[in-house]
Amino acid sequence: MKRLRLDSNALHCDCEILWLADLLKSYARSGNAQAAATCEYPRRIQGRSVAAITPEELDCERPRITSEPQDADVTLGNTVFFTCRAEGNPKPEIIWLRNNRRRAHPSLCAAHGPSRPLPGLVLVSEAGQHGRDGYPRPG
Questions:
Q1: What's the domain count of the chain?
Q2: pLDDT for 81-138, tens place per residue?
Q3: DSSP code string of 33-93
Q4: Which end of the chain has the least Cβ crowding within 10 Å, N or C?
Q5: Domain range for residue 7?
């Protein structure tokens, strides 16, 4: 890419736009591409280059787990409940993992949300190590 111009867009500069700020900074360092993007909102940073904003001035907070799932032993055919809560700005999305891969049935997670118990009927195919990770929600 040689040129990226987003300066005619009314960009809302919040924590979820920091990935773009990092990208624009890398373009500026490399000198291989021109990029322009300007914040429209919030008003206190209106007119500033997206590349110049920092997480501190946007009050961004890295995700942190406030309630971790507990280990559970369960027998075949029974239901197990896991609860995980996280805080941060932006609000973190909790990803449930099985054997270090995204859970095979993400609809179970979505239906119950990140801060409610995650029910799951334990099947032979579901056996293994389960866990979670917290990520900022994509923008």
A1: 2
A2: 778 888 888 888 887 776 777 765 544 444 344 444 444 444 334 444 445 555 555 4
A3: -EEE-BEEESGGGTT-BGGG--TTTTT-EEEEEEEPPPP----TT-EEEE--EEEEESPEE
A4: N
A5: 3-52
Of 59, 65, 78, 86, give the one whose Cα is nearest residue 127: 78
Kindly tell me if the per-residue pLDDT of 7 is higher than 50.
yes
Residue with tokens 């040129």: 3
Q: Which residues pair with 118 in a beta bridge?
A: 82
pTM, to two decimals: 0.52
Partners of residue 5 on adjacent β-strands: 36
- Close Cβ partners of 9 (under 8 Å, ≥ 6 residues apart): 37, 40
| CATH number, residue 88 | 2.60.40.10
59-80 pLDDT, tens digit per residue, is 888 888 888 888 888 787 777 7
- Rounded Cα distance, 26 and 98, in Å: 35
Shared domain check, 66 and 34: no
| 63 touches 135 (CB < 8 A) | yes
Q: What token pair was written down for 33? A: 């591409």
